[in-house]
Amino acid sequence: MDTAPTSSHPAHQDPAHLEIRPPVLYFGTPVALLSTENEDGSFNLAPISSAWALGRTVLLGLGRQGQTARNLADRPNLVVNLPAPELWRAVERLAPLTGRHPVPPGKPHGCRFEPDKFGAAGLTEQPSRGVRPPRVAECPLQLEARAEQVRPDGSGEFVIVEAVVGTVHADARIVVPGTDHVDPAAWSPLVYSFRHYFGLGPELGHSYRTRTPRTQAAPDSPADAEPRRVPD
Ligand SMILES: Cc1cc2nc3c(=O)[nH]c(=O)nc-3n(C[C@H](O)[C@H](O)[C@H](O)COP(=O)(O)O)c2cc1C
Fold first, then answer.
1. CA–CA–CA angle 111, 117, 109 (5° rounding)
2. For residue 158, which atom of ligand 1 is closest to its CA?
3. Beta 43-48 vs 27-30: how paired, if at all?
4. CA distance 187 to 84
5. pLDDT, position 229
6. What is the 32 CA–ligand 1 centroid distance (Å)?
7. Is the overall model pTM greater than 0.70, yes or no?
8. Cβ atoms within 10 A of the Cβ of 137, count?
9. pLDDT grade, residue 1 (50/70/90)?
10. Ligand 1 centre and the CA of 158: distance in Å?
11. Which parts of the sequence are annotated with region: Disordered (predicted)?
12. Alpha carbon of 68 to those of 26, 39, 63, 80, 181: distances in Å?
């Protein structure tokens, strides 16, 4: 049963928070560039930001009409390439392009067909180890993967992809030397927040679960203190 409000402001009318209807809900997730294989054996490349990891699986949200969704339904191998912040202009060059011909009706105004996405973006194909789609050489993290499930979402507009990651390639400059750990102090994703691009700010702290070995002494840590760990 609802409780009657006791002040002049009902509980849901918090004056510090406005009720708004934002046109998008992209609250800030990393950009990934998906390389996939087209019907004719050429390769497509598409930016997405609806991606997150669950163990060894990366979940992807894709527009149903796009070439990437079509490719993964038929040829499930892909590479999830993760660009650093300085690649944002290359990402944005890909934004109005589709690998699908003719351009499907649901695509935004101004969207055009482009068969050579790598060339259009000024990015370099790099052969993968275990899948046909190439990696993006400029991306510091490249996850070879296979779409094990491609299914429609509830609205029918999108597909949800479960991609199981195989080989992971990391630029040597973001790896803690001699380990399998990505150094979070050296790596920054490109973050897409309400259709604007950002990098990460300074580190705030770390999870109690981190196992990343120390890469540098914290400025105020005594010499005999526990090694500083940074989040993984
Ligand atoms: C930064 C950024 C993030 C995007 N995120 C997504 C996304 O999460 N899912 C999606 O389907 N499209 C996303 N898009 C739009 C696709 O890149 C766009 O529809 C593109 O035409 C798809 O190419 P394709 O048809 O060749 O697959 C994003 C675009 C940009 C620039």
1. 5
2. 11
3. unpaired
4. 8
5. 54
6. 10
7. yes
8. 14
9. very low
10. 11
11. 208-232
12. 20, 11, 8, 12, 30
CATH 3.40.50.1000 fits 27-198, yes or no: no
For ligand 1, whether the C-beta of 63 sits within 6 Å is yes
Residue 195 pLDDT class (50, 70, 90 cuts): very high
Both tokens of 135, joined, read 């990696």
| Tokens at 7, concatenated | 């002040």
Distance, CA of 141 to CA of 209 (rounded, Å): 22
Would you kindly state where each structural domain of the chain is located, as residue ranges?
27-198, 206-232
Q: Phi and psi (nearest 5°) for 173?
A: -75, -15
Residue nearest to atom 25 of ligand 1 (CA): 66
Cα-only R_g, the chain:
21
Omega before 102 within 30 of 0, i.e. cis: yes
Q: Whose CA is nearest to atom 19 of ligand 1?
A: 66
CA proximity to 133, closest of 222, 26, 34, 25: 34
CB 202 within 8 A of CB 168: no
- Is the pLDDT at 210 greater than 80? The verdict is yes
State how far the Cα of 203 lies from the Cα of 110, in Å rounded to an integer: 39
Residue 27 has pLDDT above 70, yes or no: yes
> What are the backbone dihedrals phi and psi of residue 112, each rounded to the nearest 5 degrees, phi first?
-135, 155
Quote the DSSP letter at residue 130.
Answer: S
Q: Ligand 1 centre and the CA of 46: distance in Å? A: 6
